[in-house]
Amino acid sequence: MASHHDQEPNRQSRLTAALGLLCGLLLFGLIGLTCVDVVTRYWFNAPVNGAFELTELLLAALIFAALPLTTGAGQHVEVDLLAGLSGPRLQRAMRWLAAVVAGVVLFILAWRLALQGLRLSEDGAVTNSLALPLAPVAWLAALSCAASGLIALLRGALPADKA
């Protein structure tokens, strides 16, 4: 029987695959919407109603769905000016400090986005032309930032070869 420890990487890879699939679907939706809007606008003089709003919402969802994947893969832009000038201990300390700063910033963003989600929910805020609710996007962004903050802290606690 597999232990709990053995099941964790499998659960993590399934979650990563699901988020990757979601990002792919969102990107495919953005591409499809843009293509249909351009074709119908120029050939038939009939643009897709609310295409701009849908594009904004899909793009926000795509960015925040991809944030935990980017954080987990360690693919954020990094500037390591001192890496070649420092020893392994200082490099570990700088990597840990960067992870803590990133985690704290992401948790602050999550907190502020959650407050914004509450306000949008209470106000019943919707988009102008399609009347789509805005709160779910704020909630997705808050959840994504919180997950990414946790991932950043966990990556900072791991040895460099495991992170």
Query: Roughly how much helix do the residues carry, as a percent range?
Result: over 70%
Low-confidence stretches: none
Q: Radius of gyration, Cα only, in angstroms?
A: 20 Å
Q: Outline the biggest β-sheet.
A: none
Q: In DSSP terms, counting alpha (H) and pi (I) runs of 4 or more, how many helices?
A: 4
Q: What is the structural class?
A: mainly alpha
Number of strands: 0
The overall pLDDT, averaged over residues, is: 91
Cα distance spanning the termini: 28 Å
**Helix-strand string:** HHHH
So what's the overall shape? elongated
Strand content: under 5%
Characterization of this structure:
- By secondary structure, this protein is mainly α.
- Helices cover 75% and strands 0% of the residues.
- It has four helices and no strands.
- The mean pLDDT is 91.
List keywords for this structure.
mainly alpha; 163 residues; cell inner membrane; cell membrane; DctQ; single chain; 75% helix
